[in-house]
Specification:
With 218 residues, this protein is mostly helical. It folds into 2 domains: 81 residues, ARM repeat  fold (Up-down Bundle), CATH 1.20.1660; 128 residues, Alpha Horseshoe (Leucine-rich Repeat Variant). It contains 13 helices and no strands. It is globular and about 55 Å long.
C-alpha cells in the first residue's frame, strides 16, 4: 500500500527542512520529490486505467484531507493525469475547493496552471464567469488563479481577459497577486513582446510586477 511505503520512507530531518521551507504551514513526512515520485509511480501508472472518474476525484479529496503535504502533492500529480475529456463543467466546484483548502503557492500554482487551465480550454464560456466571481472575492488564491490559469496557453492567451484582470488587481498590495501579474505578463511576452511592452507603457504597475513582466523584454 502506498501509504505504508510513504511511512517507511519517513525522514525527520528532511521533514524539518521541508516544513521550514514552506513557512511551517504544513507537516511533512520528509520524502523529497525524486523519491516520492519513484514510490508513487506504480500507483499513478494504474490510477487512470482502473478507476472511474468519480473514484479518482474521491481519492484526490481523501489525500487532500491528510495532514502531511506529500499527500497533497500526490493528489496534484493524480489530477494532472486527467484527460481533457474527463472534466465536466461542474468540476469548477471541485477546483475551487482544492484552491481554498490547504492553500499555498505550491498547490494553487500547480492546479491553476495545469488542470484548471485545461478545464477552461474545455469550457471556454466559463472563463469570464468564473474569473469575475473569483476576482470579486477577497481570497488571494482565487484571485491568483485567475491571473495564472493561462500560463501554458502560449499564443492562445485571451489577453483582453488577462489585461482586465491585471487592471482589476494592479493596486492590490498582496505579494502573491503582484508576483502573479508579473508572471502572467512575462510568460505572454515570450510570444507577443510588443503587446506586453505596449501594456506596460500604458499601465502603472508595481515595481515587483513590472520587474517580473520585463524579464524577457530587455
Amino acid at each position: 500500500m502506498l501509504q505504508d511505503e510513504f511511512e517507511a520512507a519517513r525522514n525527520k530531518n528532511h521533514a524539518l527542512q521541508m516544513e521550514a521551507y514552506m513557512k511551517h504551514n504544513f507537516k511533512f513526512i520528509g520524502i523529497k520529490s525524486p523519491q516520492r515520485r519513484a514510490l508513487q509511480k506504480p500507483f499513478l501508472d494504474t490510477f487512470h486505467t482502473t478507476l472511474s472518474v468519480q473514484s479518482k476525484w474521491q481519492i484526490i479529496f481523501e489525500l487532500w484531507k491528510k495532514e502531511e503535504r506529500e499527500y497533497q502533492l500526490l493528489a496534484m500529480d493524480l489530477l494532472n493525469k486527467f484527460k481533457k475529456s474527463e472534466f465536466s463543467i461542474t468540476d469548477i466546484v471541485r477546483f475551487e475547493r482544492l484552491i481554498l483548502e490547504k492553500s499555498w503557492w505550491d498547490s494553487v500554482d500547480t492546479i491553476a496552471s495545469n488542470a484548471l487551465g485545461i478545464y477552461f480550454k474545455q469550457f471556454p464560456n466559463q472563463q469570464k464567469i468564473i474569473t469575475q466571481k473569483w476576482g470579486d472575492s477577497s481570497n488571494i488564491w482565487l484571485m491568483r488563479s485567475c491571473l495564472i490559469f493561462q500560463l501554458k496557453y502560449k499564443n492562445d492567451v485571451d489577453f483582453e481577459l488577462s489585461s482586465s484582470l491585471i487592471r482589476k488587481f494592479q493596486f492590490n498590495n498582496e505579494f502573491f497577486i503582484q508576483k502573479a501579474i508579473g508572471w502572467s505578463l512575462r510568460q505572454y511576452s515570450k510570444f507577443n513582446p510588443e503587446e506586453v511592452r505596449d501594456f506596460l507603457s500604458k499601465n502603472k504597475l508595481s515595481g515587483l510586477a513590472t520587474r517580473e513582466a520585463s524579464k524577457y523584454l530587455n
